[in-house]
Design brief:
The complex is a heterodimer of chains A (about 400) and B (about 350).
Chain A lengths: L10 H13 L5 E4 L7 E3 L9 H18 L5 H24 L1 H4 L7 E4 L1 H18 L6 H20 L7 H44 L1 H16 L2 H18 L1 H5 L7 H27 L1 H10 L3 H34 L9 H9 L3 H29 L10
Antiparallel strand pairs in A: 1-2, 1-3
Chain B lengths: L1 E8 L9 E8 L4 E5 L6 H8 L7 E6 L2 E2 L5 H6 L1 E5 L10 H5 L1 H5 L4 H14 L4 H4 L9 H13 L5 E5 L7 H18 L2 E6 L2 H7 L2 E6 L2 E6 L1 H6 L4 H7 L3 H6 L13 E3 L17 E4 L5 E5 L8 E3 L13 H11 L3 E5 L5 E6 H11 L3
Classes of the chains: A mainly alpha (about 400), B alpha/beta (about 350).
Amino acid sequence: MRLKATIHIDRVGMLGVIVGIASLLFPTLTLKANRVDGGVGYQLWEMPSSLSFILAIIISLIVMAGALTVLPQRRPIHLTKSAIGIAILLVCCALLVLTKPLVVPLGEAGRLSLASGLWLLAISGYILMESSLSSIALPTRWLMALRLLPAFMLIFLVTTGGLSHLAIMKEFMNNRSRLFQDLLNHLFLSFSAVTLAVIIGIPLGIIAWRRKLFERGVFTLVNGVQTIPSLALFGLIIAPLSLLSFRFPLLRSLGIKGVGNTPALIALTLYALLPIVQNTYTSLANIGRPVIDAGWGMGMNRHQMLTQIEIPLSLPILMSGIRTSLVQTIGNTTVAALIGAAGLGSFIFRGLGQASPDLIYLGVLPVIVMAITVDRLFGMVIRKISLPLHTEALS
Amino acid sequence: MIEFKNVTKIFPESERPAVDNLNFKAESGELCVLIGPSGCGKTTTLRMVNRMAEATSGQILVNGEDIRSYAKEQLRRSIGYVIQSVGLLPHLQVNENISLVPKLLGWEKKRRNQRADELLTMVGLNPAEYREKYAHELSGGEAQRVGVARALAAKPKLLLMDEPFGAVDPLRRETLQKEFLELQHTLGISVLFVTHDLDEAIRLADKIVLMSYGKIVQSDRPEQLLAHPANEFVRQFIGADRALKRLGCFKISDHLKKSYVLQHSELGKNGTIGHKGTRPLWVVDRRNQLVGLIDSQSNNGAMIDFPTEYRQLNVQHTLKEALSRMLGMGISAVPVVDAQLQLIGEVRLSDIEKINQSGIDL
């Protein structure tokens, strides 16, 4: 008889459980009488008794998940764990809807803010779902559907007005047109900066690879930019640009000023350069002497070399550089609001100024969604074009 | 035919010429091997032929025409090129890799695919199985076969090979060499071949060009090079066992002698026949296939069984392989068979001794 059974602890799942337990210790929702009210935090067990069954469900889900993380990890266990993760996310949605009666006594201006406990609970559900989903051999389409299920639930609730009592929804309704405008500007600024970085970065990468003489110079430059904190870089650009703009009225009439979109675009482009230059260089270095040698030896001319060997072989790594650059730029563009550039950063800084976390969420959430969407889309494209290459270096 | 006339190559970053006033000629249909220690300029010499390296001075003629009278691309497409690291394009399937030069030459797709299948068969790979594979799905030997097929795709008259079998394991290397030699004879193409492996050079070459410090030290047929080394460097390079290596240059077909045969059924009850001669007798069965030998010196004149490799020596093998078998069993002759493993004659130790006594410098 074997006395010692081997225990396979699912560490990631365990983390999800710990976060879930922690979520119970923090206030889940904050009840506010109006927009500027500090509000009263509610923990789960302080909710009206009509909602106590939710607490019971959450506790039992977390306990079940905890038990599953120490069992031998097999397919049914993985399935159950991800189901629990999805269930926790759905319970979060349910909690939001069911707390609507709480604000009724406070009148028209009353609202509920999401507090740390709820965020932690959602994170715990997400960790449990993701940690196990990736271990299940299901068709990609099915996995995608499962992942998006809680998100669809949320979208459904938002569109049907089930969440209209939430502070973030009230802020959204008040700032709708501004938010969409800022979102478009944010995207436009990010994509412009990355487009410029692609136009400048690819030739720089090629030069660095072709001429060893320039290699050090190019990389010192693009690495150097990365070491400057983004705030400082935005600030640094203001002075010379205002000077130029005052000297040459033509620039001014084109809208180029010390503050606003122009300095933001310059700074963002500079930041976006490194991943693109770096990956252009790596992708070319990765092609390998023998393939290049064979290409010339077969009698390819410069053009054929470029279109039949260099571009198809370097594209996957190059694309993942653009991916990194774009995701990073979408985040950086938020900070650019500080120097007057358009974008979702304005919501965040307004929220900070007015001590209104809901306004901050309103700016942050679309940025996160954009970054993740861009990342996933590029991931799909890259996987498609690198299929026959078998390059392990690609994620 | 390739001819080098006073060819010199000096790389910009070096003072000493990589190739120093080279003059030699390889005839049409010949397999000419460039050999020498690393850094002797053999690869540079090869790469100057398809202008992957440009000669600093001098002239290179292919089939009587200066290679500089063509555009580089045009020249390269007309010359096959095989390198040690193969250099298959990882994003293309095997048949697309083979079709590279035909595609550059503007062949139609149907004709290209047909040619690719033809070549796969020629290099011993089943087209149905291999045509759609990618480079990372091939073993080293398979990749190199595809590399050879790719070089032959547009029916070049000249093939340049830079240590093509260097990265393949020794067992497969020998098979590849043998098959390549047959292929080269069937196609009748000229080959310029770079290697640092002397055994490979002896096995393949019609002519060996031994280089050192960018100069030709000696250029001759393999058996002549081994028999008459021009100087101390050549002696050092070919080694003290050159007499033995030289036997690898002689085919058994040129030294086949009549053999004395005994039917297995003629043997006495105890397997002996009272054979008193000094020469071994080969015992064959009814189909004329070898069973064993009878040697008066050993086993009291009873029949000795043959190990497998002794039943398979044919006229394509070399005297070196024959001698090795004689030494292995301590006998003064070995039997030779045809493709059906039927006995057709023998090779004798006395003939081998004569070859080395008459033709070799001490």
